[in-house]
Amino acid sequence: MEGATVLALFLAVVSLLLVSPSESRLSLDYYQRTCPQFEKIIQETISNKQITSPTAAGATLRLFLHDCLANGCDASVLVSSTFFNKAERDADINLSLPGDGFDAIVRAKTALELACPNTVSCADILAVSTRDLVTMVGGPHYTVYYGRKDGRVSKASAIEGHLPKPTMSMSQIIEIFAAKGFSVREMVALSGAHTIGFSHCSEISNDIYNNSKFSQYDPQYNPRFASGLQRACGDYKKNPTLSVFNDIMTPNKFDNMYFQNLPKGLGVLKSDRGLYSDPRTRPFVEEFAADENKFFQAFAQAMQKLSLVGVQTGRKGEIRRRCDQIN
């Protein structure tokens, strides 16, 4: 029995030695030898994208959140559907993901394939691009480790129950984040991503029109704000692309204004308003509204934690040649 235990221990040690550190875990210098200009290329590419399309930061941040919360940070949300497979991006909840986020990653991937072919994963590009865009619009800088591989599977049917929906109760949303290892405070901090970006009018139509009765709306709304939303979204049935900013005060700046808006009834989505009305989340809304530095610290820590969820390394994944296709 002892001999078998020694042999098992020996085999375990050998197997660990056979896997190089760069393959088995993430690191800050993962591309130091294979693509040293990797960060610079991404920075230049996404800077140009943000300048020409100011909604790119919010779009990419949302793309990253939807990727990591649903089965891990493996860039599976970027994969296009085929005749044989309905991919994640075509799940109902992902149909509203803005095109600017996808385009930002495609541009960065194209530039990196020219400089360092078949080297940098789409998952790493998405993680770094998100961080850099958040920083570019005034948000906190945080450390991103590299070495993620791209997932080989992307199925719309695997999304259900992994992503929070605006219509969910706060208990359901808390439960989704808790299942990924996030505290209520971390969940509220990540909700602060709504300080940039927009929501489609179709997502709030039931709240602002109340079964098509134009004068009725969710009483949690500030009345003047609700009237403004009704006017802005009046043509949403004919124009499904109509949208409104999640933070009407400073829509293109990453700050804590989103949290300052909530006590005033200026939360666009039902889930936004729920953060202030629920006694479990309200203290954190008030904390972040009162102190932007606390919000930035909590957001940065939560984003770094999120970027490590379900990461694939080594031979578990692949480096996609195109982000929208599995090799």
From TrEMBL:
Site feature location: Transition state stabilizer: R62
Catalytic reactions on record: 2 a phenolic donor + H2O2 = 2 a phenolic radical donor + 2 H2O
Disulfide pairings: C35-C116, C68-C73, C122-C323, C201-C233
One GO BP annotation of this record: response to oxidative stress
Enzyme class, spelled out: oxidoreductase
Entry's localization field: Secreted
UniProt cross-references to SUPFAM superfamilies, sorted A to Z: Heme-dependent peroxidases (SSF48113)
Residues noted as binding Ca(2+) 2 in the record, renumbered to the chain: T195, D247, T250, D255
Required co-factors: Ca(2+); heme b
One GO cellular component term noted in the UniProt record for this chain: extracellular region
Keyword Metal-binding: yes
Cofactor: how bound: Binds 2 calcium ions per subunit.
Catalytic residues identified in the record: H66
Residues given in the record as Ca(2+) 1 binding sites: D67, G72, D74, S76, E88
Residues involved in substrate binding: P164
Keyword Iron: yes
Positions of heme b binding: H194
Gene Ontology terms, MF aspect: heme binding; lactoperoxidase activity; metal ion binding
Function: Removal of H(2)O(2), oxidation of toxic reductants, biosynthesis and degradation of lignin, suberization, auxin catabolism, response to environmental stresses such as wounding, pathogen attack and oxidative stress. These functions might be dependent on each isozyme/isoform in each plant tissue.
Family of the protein in this entry: Belongs to the peroxidase family. Ascorbate peroxidase subfamily. Belongs to the peroxidase family. Classical plant (class III) peroxidase subfamily.
Name this protein carries in UniProt: Peroxidase
Organism: Acacia crassicarpa (northern wattle)
